[in-house]
Amino acid sequence: DKVLPELIEPYELRAAKLREFLEDVKPSLCYDIVPLADPFGPSVTDPDLQCLVVSEETRRGGEAVNRKRLENGLPQLSLYEIQLMKDPDHSQNEEEKISSSSLRQRLLGTLLQPPRRDPALPLRPYVIGLTGGTGSGKTSIAKLLGQLGAFVIDADKLGHAVYVPGGPAYEPVVAAFGAEILNKDGTINRKVLGAKVFGNQEQLKRLTDIVWPKIAQMVKERVKEADAQGKAVCVLDAAVLLE
């Protein structure tokens, strides 16, 4: 598994860079660059191949290729082993070799492109959307950014506040789903409400169409609050940010 696969460039871009490099090294050769959709690719099916370049750590993969070729009735490939270059500047958490995984780790915390200026948006506060599934580390990152001075908006907390009596979604949700979702004290029973929408796309959309715009409005109010406090950066921690 590759580290930080989200930061891997698209195949077309990587192939174009590789071709440029190879043609720069030896333009007289003919290069056929193909995408690998599985661990073996054309190495186990192409009868014209004669040699496979491997490294010390991929030699076993080369031997597996030759076993597959024999199964497919093809001649074995010569395995030419190269030495991997060491990266003298690798950190403790990075691989010793020169590695794209290390380069992707170093990209973390850098801007891939400058922020676009939108005349319709205020310059401050600068709002960062922080999203990801449960256990992905959103809360930890939000906490770190908060310690650095950012104003943190927790959409999960707003998602609870929106349902409380007097909250912006309380009355419309009760009107839509009935008094049977209420506890004796008048609060919304989230478990009963959840059972009504679980596995039912139509009912779930009915709920989110009520709740999400209310939460979005609460977020906008919090951003204004951050601005009033003079905060330069605002972080929105939200599991369903894009939706």
TrEMBL record:
Which terms does the UniProt entry file under GO BP? coenzyme A biosynthetic process
| A GO molecular function held by the record | dephospho-CoA kinase activity
Keywords, ordered alphabetically: ATP-binding, Nucleotide-binding
Q: Where are the transmembrane segments?
A: none
Q: Which Gene3D superfamilies match?
A: HUPs (3.40.50.620), P-loop containing nucleotide triphosphate hydrolases (3.40.50.300)
InterPro entries, per database record: Depp_CoAkinase (IPR001977), P-loop_NTPase (IPR027417), Rossmann-like_a/b/a_fold (IPR014729)
| PROSITE patterns on file | DPCK
Q: Which domain of life is it from?
A: Eukaryota
> Does Nucleotide-binding count among this protein's keywords?
yes
PANTHER family, alphabetically? BIFUNCTIONAL COENZYME A SYNTHASE-RELATED, DEPHOSPHO-COA KINASE-RELATED
Spell out the protein name for this chain. Answer: COASY synthase
Species source reads Peucedramus taeniatus (Olive warbler)
Name the gene.
Coasy
